[in-house]
Backbone:
């Protein structure tokens, strides 16, 4: 007599897959909401409705809105890395284009987060992580310039690169001064070239 095929592992795998799919659906909904709205405006009830699940399901998966935001922040960081892509080392034009391409998608959400930094701890934590990632990006993107510098000059040069490529520089050019995307890319490239020319060939 043929033995029956065990079904329990299959059922457990199916449940795990279904739970993961539900979690991803919630994060999908949350990502869109946090990208387009203020943190204070987003509620778990609204996320549940948009994800097509019960409020208790969201609570079961994440517990709090803060935990949902943490999951969204991880996806946001991955999206930023994707948007910036792989820029050739010390390619100032490519770096400016990649940076503006990122901010065109994520910039307004980032600006809203900055406005809440001092009063919403989970937002402040996400921004701290974003600053670390931005610093890492700058060090990877401009190795030729930074590797020749030492001490205070290197710290100052890196600070200048971070300032030129900061979201607030994009805001000043794009939103406050009304430059188009192409002109914003050109302006940031010119600022990067100014930093490069100032420090090129100097070590102290």
Residues:
């Amino acid at each position: 007599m043929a033995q029956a095929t065990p079904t329990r592992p299959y059922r457990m795998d199916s449940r795990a897959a279904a739970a993961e799919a539900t979690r991803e659906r919630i994060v999908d909904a949350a990502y869109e909401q946090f990208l387009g709205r203020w943190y204070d405006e987003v509620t778990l009830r609204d996320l549940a409705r948009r994800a097509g699940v019960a409020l208790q399901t969201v609570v079961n998966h994440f517990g709090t809105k803060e935990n949902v935001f943490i999951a969204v922040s991880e996806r946001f960081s991955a999206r930023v890395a994707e948007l910036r892509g792989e820029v050739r080392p010390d390619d100032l034009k490519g770096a400016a284009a990649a940076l503006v391409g990122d901010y065109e998608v994520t910039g307004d959400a980032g600006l809203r987060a900055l406005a809440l930094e001092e009063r919403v701890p989970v937002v402040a934590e996400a921004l701290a992580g974003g600053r670390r990632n931005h610093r890492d990006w700058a060090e990877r993107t401009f190795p030729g310039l930074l590797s020749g510098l030492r001490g205070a000059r290197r710290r100052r040069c890196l600070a200048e690169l971070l300032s030129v490529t900061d979201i607030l520089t994009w805001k000043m050019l794009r939103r406050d001064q009304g430059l188009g995307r192409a002109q914003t890319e050109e302006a940031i490239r010119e600022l990067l070239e100014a930093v490069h020319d100032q420090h090129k060939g100097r070590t102290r």
In short: Residues 76-204 form one domain. The chain has two domains: 9-63, 76-204.
